[in-house]
Amino acid sequence: MSSKLVLLLFLLLLPLVAIRAADFSIDLQPYLQEPDFDIDLEPDELEVIPGEKAEFDVIVTTTGGFTGTLKFDVLSVPPNCFYEIKPAAGKLQLKIYTTENTPPGTYEVKLKASAEGRSKVASATLIVSGGGGGGGPDFRVKLRPSTVSIDPGQTANFTIVLIPTGGFAETVHYSVSDLPPYSYQQMEVRSGTDIILKVVTTPNTPPGTYEIMVTARGGGKVKKATAKIIVVGGGGVTTTTTETRTRARGNLSVSVLPKTLKVRPGGTGILTVRVYKEGEFDSPVTVMIRGLPDGATASIDINNTVPNFVAQAKISVGQNVQPVSYMLTVTISGGGRSEQRTITLLVEGQPTSAPATTSQPLTSTPAQADFSIELVPSSIFLQKGGSGSVAVTVRGNGLAQPVVLRVTGPPTLSFAFSPDSTVELGETASLIVKAGNEPGTYTVVVEGRSGSLVRSATLTITVEAGESKCIIATVTYGEDSGIVEKLRSFRDATVMATYSGSRFLSVFNAFYYSWSPEVAEWLRHNWAARSAVKIAITPLIAILGAASTLSSFLPSSELTVVSIGLISSFLIGLIYVGLPLSLLRKLEPRQLAIAELAAIISSMGMLVSWLLRWDLLMQISSSSAVLSFMALGAMMGPVVRKLLT
């Protein structure tokens, strides 16, 4: 009975998801105006040091019911830097990555948006300060963010960023001055060049604007950086909390992974804190970690920010921390809301022999950043004029800038990255390759650049001679079919751009392309068989087409692709096996229980392999999950038939 209820809920939820995706409201007022749009860049001025990243929010406003698709072109940026336009935290951002070779100066950044014969240009000022990187060993220091607004009794979080140049590798000591009244400061070391500065105010801290100063001393040099703390409100903690609750009308959705973080003494580990808003939540939230043992510190790259965001909390364990388990509490609070998650910090192994530094909480030294590029698969076979995709994953640590990918290959091949060519550590992009008409075996170099670091990996592409042996769907529906092109784009741009999807496709492609070209070639010359196959695969094409459409309404993520893939597998098993067999047999509870158990085990295997980035386990578990959900759909045929009748 429980299985029937689960299936009934499943069938009832599908229309709700479709209705939610298609939800809209009609407002006649915009249509009284001529359709138009405008763009702006915020803030209108930013200042960075060579090697830093500048982020401008792209603000798009529309009038008159404008529904065109905007195309963006960057017209002007400083020299010796690169840029990207990319969605971030629910908004569109223009990110400009300067390098140490970007000359200091004041530059005008221009962004052009075009659609339906119209074009608009937005501009902002970018100030590159400092003197580049050619004057011998030196360093710069900066506080991020430059301004923090808090209520009395709250904590202002800053990151002290150390930017070494010219091979600077000395230890740097920090001190803080000009704190607000009735407040104190705390420092937490990050693994690398950055330090977290916390300015803790009290209910007695009077409202006002305060400029704090951080002084950095090292290698015989002294550098200073300032930031502003705006203390608002005036009635103490109780009044502030009431005002905050009034501002935040939604809720918070929080997850912290992994549940158990394993770190050796002297090492570091990463917690991923995902904070999403539900409803119209518009207040900044802070992330705090409590329960750390003496000698361990935590630093969070994104904090005091309005959701949605995904923060990386780096846990650094000192050399002398005892190898036992510690229970940590991660608290996410703001806007009158507070969420807590508990995780286990497992310090394992024996402490290393490196001596502990007593002044560690107030010092930092430059970290050795590095990364590597992983291709899955490392070789592909294409037909003349055909296309394929490869998953490109960036692994490493300590990078201050994202990795920009590019491909070097013969002119007979064309390449494109999806969703874009700029990726962060741990992210996967899909490299889409289209073959020309020249057969042969080609070696392609996929290169990644982050600042001055350049790493590469090689990809072998074999373009087969002879007539094109199309895959079954292509030869059935036609070379220029929009349906097939949509499914191919969904595979290459959406599924292949995720970790689990790319590993599953590496197994599926090895199986499918081992026999499909011969079958497709036979179908190409047999009209009757081709017509029969077209009828047979129409439900499959419809399911995959619906999956592609649904994915466009949902956020692009690992969970989205996995969920849609497993639902599609269930429906394929139900339609092709479950419903036909329901005419001949009844539901077998024992077989259904086996299929349910297999689905649960394989799904857990996917979760574990995603957390551990274990490719072989992901290939096995993702393939098993697809098969088990298809079997589950096949077992559910009699239940669906009974519900329908």
Key features of this structure:
Immunoglobulin-like, 28% helix, 40% strand, 645 residues, 5-stranded mixed beta sheet, single chain, 4 domains, alpha+beta, 11 helices
Short recap of the structure:
With 645 residues, this protein is α+β, with helices and mostly antiparallel strands.
Report mean pLDDT, rounded to a whole number: 77
Judging from the principal axes of the Cα atoms, what is the shape?
globular
CATH class of the largest domain: Mainly Beta
CATH superfamily of the largest domain: Immunoglobulins
Strand content: 35-45%
Main sheet summary: 5 strands, mixed
CATH topology of the largest domain: Immunoglobulin-like
Query: From the coordinates shown, what is the CATH architecture of the largest domain?
Result: Sandwich
By DSSP, the count of extended strands is 34
Count of the separate structural domains: 4
Radius of gyration: 28 Å
Helix content: 25-40%
Q: What's the end-to-end separation, in Å?
A: 17 Å
- Uncertain regions: pLDDT < 50 for 5+ in a row? 11-32, 234-248, 351-362
What strand line-up does the widest sheet have? Answer: 10-16-15-12-25
